[in-house]
Amino acid sequence: MAESLISSYKKLMEKAKNLFILQSAAAIIHWDMETKMPPKAIKLRSLQLAMLSRIGHKMSTEPEIGALLEGIMRHPEYERRDAVQKRNVYLIKKHYDEQTKLPEELVVEIAKQQAITVDTWKKAKATKNFSMFKPELEKIVELKKKAAEILMEVKETATPYDALIDIFEPKMTAKTISKVFDELREGLVSLLRKCETAPKQPDVSIFKRKVPIDVQRKISKALAEFVRYDIESKEAGGRIDETEHPFTTGYYDDV
Fold it and tell me: What is the dihedral of CA 69, 74, 77, 83, to 10 degrees?
């Protein structure tokens, strides 16, 4: 690799690393919100996430990143690079192109509203009160629609929803998902009908059995031990905590 290309690639990767570190800090706040946060802290958490998203957006859209990408991709030696290096450049460019199209204030408002919406959902779920959740849900839906319409253009998708799907499943479309699920439904309904009319019916009472929290803790610990995932030693890289909805977050030695 020519010296100028090596230098530019290293600079680009350093910027990507710094953004990655910032995002890991936001992930810890999200984890705290779901596990340890005291009830009154939600306002501060939403402001913290909004601030980190603002910083992240500024870092993601630095003009220097655009200049580095252009210089790297136009370099005569670029096509000879290995698959990992070219994939890194592709992903960073994809992120850069998308973020430069999104207004900073929209990105910040989404981060803030997401935190408030999730917290409200927990309270509404506990009291079985959808009317409590509905206003916050409507706010985040409208914000996401605005972002989707912008991303639809830069991602070149057929619909705004396809632009949002791409965030989690690149190149996937609602049309493809609908086709797969329609086929799956047909097979499952047929199987379900056979089960319902089978002469021997299983005992399904276990599905209604309540499992105490302390038992759930033991099950989780046993599962972690079974897959040899260390959550207890002085060298542990992960932990298990109670949450309203199960999730995994973190990076390598901090999960």
Answer: 50
Distance CA 48, CA 35 (A): 17
DSSP H or E run through 210: none
Cβ contacts of 32 within 8 Å, gap of 6 or more: 45
Mean pLDDT rounded to a whole number for the chain: 95
In this structure, is residue 99 part of a structural domain?
A: yes
pLDDT digits (tens, 9 = 90+) for 232-247: 999 999 999 999 999 9
- Contact indicator for 119, 38 with CB cutoff of 8 Å: no
In a domain, 143, yes or no: yes
115-130-118 Cα angle (round to 5): 10
pLDDT at 251: 85
Please count the structural domains in the chain: 1
For residue 47, the enclosing domain spans 3-170
Inside any domain, residue 34? yes
